[in-house]
Structures
1.
Amino acid sequence: MNEYPKKTCEIERLVTIPEDVARVLNCQKTATRRNGVYAHPGEIMTLEGQEFVIDALYSQELGEMTDADALREGFESLEAYKESILSIHPNMPWLPTMKVWVHEFSPVKK
């Protein structure tokens, strides 16, 4: 069994930007990166009444991101993802060695 670090925030704060919520609801976004741990695998995130299960949690450096990772974030390319993140966090530099927590999720099958 994996030992995960203690959560630094609540799952309800994992996906909050309206455009990102829409991407999740449309199954265009299946992962999100955060500076902290917001959820552990097996937890349920509810967005507009729809449930999504956290499938995986792992650490990654921003420099390790690929276009495929950006696609899971709901963007057509890594460059588009990077532009979006830097527009949300205008004073944040894009540091390839910065570690983030990747939360992967999928719709709960009813």
Note: The mean pLDDT is 94.
2.
Amino acid sequence: MFTVEIMLFDLDGTLIDSRADLARSVNLMLEELSRPALDEETVAGFVGDGVRVLVYRSLTATHPEGRPPDDFLHADGIALMHKHYAEQMFVNTCLYAGVAETLAHFKDKRKAVVTSKEVRFTEMILERFAVAKHFDCIIGGDTVAERKPDPRPVLEAINRLGGKAEETVMIGDTENDVIAGRRAGTLIAAASYGFRSAEELHKTSPDVMIERFDQLKDFFC
């Protein structure tokens, strides 16, 4: 059992299951750009580095010769992705089981969301699912210049919460979360129920692996 004072959470694949809505938004973007659709699993594998990288990877994957988009196409794709995601983000997205109850269990801990998603979308999601009250701040992909796996978003959250890395756990479902937490000096809990497999996450050697969100109660106090 680890004692922590600060808990930092990734969003997509950790707090919320947004896989279907992200894939639908990507495919609506691709359709407008006369590109073929991608399957949900492929899109999920592209998630984790923010919308710019998601669009870049999707456009590269759907080019007949695997060529990356030029700046103009990339910008068009990002604008379309923002438009479609704003319309699609609550069609199927939901909290993972046990999230609300587990966040309430840790009511005495300082908590933040550290995500590559823009703050405005993150705020809308947390409010929609009535869990915004559990978080003291949000560090989004547009909060600091760098994104995970760079440690600076994690360090920014710790600084805003007035804590120390050694009393913090970073909880996320991708290698970026693990690497960012490790570089920042935090404990790391990897969520194998999200967008990466347990096998992929084991390679990053997290301190703890959880198969359900509520298992955080078994490892942290």
Note: The mean pLDDT is 96.
